[in-house]
Amino acid sequence: MSEPVARGPANRGNNLVEARGLVLAAMLAALAGMVDVIGYLHLKGLFVSFMSGNSTQLAAAVGGGDLTGAATIAGLIALFVLGAAASQMLADSAGRWRMTWVLTGVALLLAIAAVLRTAPEPMVFAMGALNASMHRAGKVPVSLTFVTGVLVRFGQGLGKLLTRRATGWNWLAQAVPWIGMVTGATIGGTAYLRIGDGTIWVPIALAGVLAAGSALTPQPD
Fold this sequence. Notes:
- The chain has helices at 9-42, 51-63, 67-94, 98-115, 120-130, 148-162, 175-195, 201-214, and strands at 136-137, 140-141.
- It has 221 residues and is mainly α.
């Protein structure tokens, strides 16, 4: 049976923190989706944040004997991992300002990519780094640059509800980052097809705004 839900000012405060965190997670996921679709279109089929897709393409390239292509994809994966590692070290050292510093780094990396004509390397590093900016919205775990885990948690929550093993609708919160990512990717893809590589300045501006805003509000985990 589910535990009774605590009510009162403390619970309302927790709900407010969670709701604010989910909105922020949606905006960060939109940033990731925007950058990923720009990279995907620029690289003609490779990703700058979706490493599951790149891993599948790496295996296909190796299996097909395309060692040059495999080396390119492996380099993107390695950069993503290095970005995630570097930003986690930065986040751990920055304490309560971790989101501000991580997002500032992401904005700078994307600006470097823009100056270098949408160079993929700093974009991939930036997307790896973005994951350290936020891990949870209240008690809800969130994913920013990938949505497979989000959809799995959503499906599991739905399954538990249908089998009456759980009550409540908290599992619906898992849809928020997915909606954010798809919305960001749609906006980024539409803009890229119209104005090309200059579209990257849109997520740069968004990262800058989020970095500035995070410095003025309590930062979630």
